[in-house]
Every structure is written in structure tokens, then in C-alpha cells.
Amino acid sequence: MSKSKVKYVCSSCGHESLRWLGKCPSCGEWNSFSEEIVETKKKTARQAAESDIKKLSGDSGDEEKRIKTNIEEFDRVLGGGLIYGSVVLIGGDPGIGKSTLVMQAAEKADGRTLYVTGEESIRQINIRAKRLGVKSENLFLLAETDLDVIKDGILKSEADIVIIDSIQTINNPALDNAPGTVSQIRESTAELLRLAKTKEIVVILIGHVTKEGYIAGPKILEHIVDTVLQFEGEKNYSYRILRAQKNRFGSANEIGIFEMREDGLRQVKNPSEIFIGEREEEISGSVITASIEGTRPVLLEVQALVTPSHFGNPQRVATGFDYRRLSILLAVLEKRAKLRLSTANVFLNMAGGIKIDEPAIDLAVCVSIASSLTNRAARSDYVVIGEVGLGGEVRSVGRLDKRIQEAEKLGFGNIIVPKNNLKQKPKTSTINVIPAESILQAIDIVLR
Ligand SMILES: Nc1ncnc2c1ncn2[C@@H]1O[C@H](COP(=O)(O)OP(=O)(O)OP(=O)(O)O)[C@@H](O)[C@H]1O
Ligand SMILES: [Mg+2]
Questions:
Q1: In sequence order, which residues have a C-beta less than 8 Å from that of residue 303 and are 6 or more positions away?
Q2: Where are the domains of the chain?
Q3: Are 202 and 211 in contact (CB under 8 A)?
Q4: CATH top class, domain 273-446
Q5: Does domain 64-269 have CATH number 3.40.50.300?
Q6: How does pLDDT run across 286-307, given as a tens digit for each residue?
């Protein structure tokens, strides 16, 4: 016999409570609690058969066989393609281009694809396909939200890849809760995961994200799926970045860069050229640095604007860079480089709408702020690399050789690097490698 009771679950983080709460004590989200019905069923214990326990053979058989999407940027983020029997979750802001990405991947992929849409009608999908110029004999559509019908459709379509757009719209009729609630998302995902593993197919789930940028639904969702990808970008820029957050079958540091155009997403194979392409020659506050995104080095332009503040609290705005890190670097510049920044407004921007969380660009941030404050432009054929410590010292960074090679490839004549990195001589031919020990030294060399 089964009896049911009610609990309240936060739709943002999955926190459970016995009564309704206005604010989630776990994640701080307001108005996120929804009522869910818990069914408690008495179960008889199952037993493991002897044949269930298997010896590790180390032989992966066909498991390593991947379905290539034939979109290089996508395949690289996946670790070489989609693995049979795996579930991939793609999250991203509304309108960022998730449906576009999966549709373009489905067109080129080496397999039969079933695109299940719970958000748009077949006609709307066809309108998009026409705009993107997607034509494929291997792409089938199903407009449905009922999980049982979807599962049946998956089996009948004999698809290798199933796209669910989006997991929040799926309704599992076995549960009394509304679609989009935590239990619905969790249970539907678990069912699709089982299907993926038993039928050896790939399931790609599209997920909405909350205001904070997390995939809506319980955090547990990210644990059960094999791969979690984030599709991100700034609203006003056309660049989109596909980032692996978790990958059971590949590196989680990889990124793919795309440009959103009217006719869909275009791969950006040489990101450096784009991120530094619109740079004005020798303007104060602009400094070029080299970051490692995934396994690739990317050159980018750090821009700072420092103006006097006439009011009590100076403004500090950072776009594409961690705000707290900026505050620390400002304090270091004030104390160690004797720059008067406490009464100045500081605006920092990573050109091109890219977000960087690598300490290796600290030194470039410091030099660009010093450049704008003192109105001395940075020399245009310099690239600046280094982490900055609280003592104003320049600390070593990882994968220096790759960064130097990228700067050399794009025709830069000089590169400032942390002195401690130069215990081994870097492999270079034309670029002049200049060691720096402190921010003051770097500022002196780079600024005119
Ligand atoms: N005619 C057009 N010309 C140029 N860009 C367009 C055009 N139509 C759509 N786009 C771009 O495509 C984006 C929407 O793409 P898509 O529907 O794939 O996003 P999504 O992430 O699936 O959105 P949702 O969260 O609503 O499902 C728009 O934000 C816009 O940038
Ligand atoms: Mg969509």
C-alpha cells in the first residue's frame, strides 16, 4: 500500500522543507519553494545474483566508440565526440542559442537523431531549420512532453542521438507533481539515463539556468548525468562559449568558441585574432595578455578606464573578470606601486565579452589600470603575462610555452613573463622574452 505526504522543495537548489518558506535557507533564493507529493511505497528487498558481480577486465569494447557531431568545437569540448550510452546536459541563458547548437550538431552528426521538443511546435522548429539551412535525412522531430510517449518514440525512431529540449518541460505521468519541479526533473532524467545506458544511445538534455547561472533543478541532476556543458555569452556580443563543467569522458577544462550569426552558429577556430582584432593602436588602458582556455592559448585585450571620483564612494565595475580579484589588485597597486586609486573610479573590461578566471592575467590587469591612471599608453607589440601576489611580486604561471608561441604566431615582438618561470629557457625564435619580478618593473617596461 502506498501513502502520500507533502513536502516543499526549492526549485533552485533542491533544499527540502516540511513547510513552505519564502526564502531558501540553503541558497538564499526567494519564492522558490514549491509543493511536491512524496509517495512512500513499501518495497521488497532485491538481491544481487552472482553473475552481477564482474571482474574488471579493462577492455572497454565499443564503449570508446564516439559519435562525432562533426562540429570541431563541439567535439573537442565533449572530449572527442558523444559516447554511446551517455547523457549530456547543456545549460544556458534563455535565447543564448542552445536549440540552434543542438540542431546544427544533429545535422552534421554521424547518426540518426530524434529531436524531442516540448517548447516549440514542429512548425517553429522547421522555421529555425530553414533559417539555419539545416537539411538532413537523419533528423526526426517529435513534439511531446509526456515521458512515456517520448520513451516509446525513442525506441520506435531507432535513433542514436536523442535531444530533449528542454528537460524542464518533460512530464513524468508516474508522478503527481507539475513539470519543472525538482522531483519531475530528477525522475525524468533518471529514466532517460536508464534508457541511454540500456539501449546504448546518446541523450542530450537541454536545461534552463537560474538567475545565478546554475542549471535549474536540483544540483543532483549535475551528478547523475555524464557530461555538463554550459553555453554562455554576453547578450550584446555575438560570441558564444561552450564550456565543459563536468565530463566523465574528457577534460573538463575545454572550451569551444562560436559566433552567432543570422544563419546560425559559426565556429571560431582562431580565437586570438577575434579577441584582439578590434584593438586601437596604443591607447591608454589597453594591454594584451595570453590566457589558456581549455587546452588552447587565447590572446585577449584587457581594457581599463580610470577616472577621478568626485563623490564619496568610487565606482568599481568589472566585466568578464572577478570583482573581488579586481579589488585585491587595486589594493596591491595602491600599496606596492604607490598609485592613488582609492579615490578613482575603475572600470575593467575583457574585450569581446569573454570571461576569464585565470590568475595569469593579473599582471595585464595591473598594467592596464596603471596605464589608464597615468595616461601612458602600453607599447603595442608587448604581451603581458603573470600572476600578481599580495606583495606586488610577479608569480609564475602554467603552460608558459604555449602562451609565448601564440604571441609569437600573432606577430608580437615582446612578451613580459614571470622571472620564476624562466628557470628553463622557453622555446622561441623571434619573440623577445622579458622577465619581470614585480608589478613596478612590468609597468616601467611596458608603458610609454
Ligand atoms: N533572424 C535571426 N537573425 C539573427 N539571429 C537570430 C535570428 N533568430 C534568432 N537569432 C539568434 O538566435 C538566438 C535564439 O536561439 P535559440 O532559439 O537556439 O536559443 P535557445 O537558447 O534555445 O533559447 P530558449 O531558451 O528560448 O530555448 C537569439 O537570441 C538570436 O541571437
Ligand atoms: Mg531553445
A1: 285, 286, 348, 349, 350, 351, 368
A2: 2-41, 64-269, 273-446
A3: no
A4: alpha beta
A5: yes
A6: 999 999 987 889 999 999 999 9
434 lines ligand 1 (CB under 6 A): no
- Residue owning the nearest CA to atom 25 of ligand 1: 94
Tens of pLDDT, residues 315-339: 999 999 999 999 999 999 999 999 9
Q: How many CB atoms lie within 10 A of CB 201?
A: 26
Residues 6+ away with beta carbon under 8 Å from 226: 83, 86, 87, 88, 247, 248, 249
Name the amino acid, one letter, at 411. G
Q: Which of 90, 93, 100 to mutate to test the pocket of ligand 1 (most atoms within 8 A of CB)?
A: 100
> Which residue stretches of 51-175 are H helix?
72-78, 98-108, 122-132, 147-157
Report the nearest-CA residue for atom 23 of ligand 1: 95
Q: Is 236 in the pocket of ligand 1 (CB under 6 A)?
A: no
Residues, CB-to-ion distance under 5 Å, ligand 2? 99
The cell 569551444 sits on which residue? 256
Closest ligand to C-alpha of residue 261 is 1
Number of the ligand closest to the Cα of 263: 1
CA dihedral 414, 428, 302, 346 (to 10 degrees): -60
* CA–centroid distance, residue 230 to ligand 1 (Å): 16
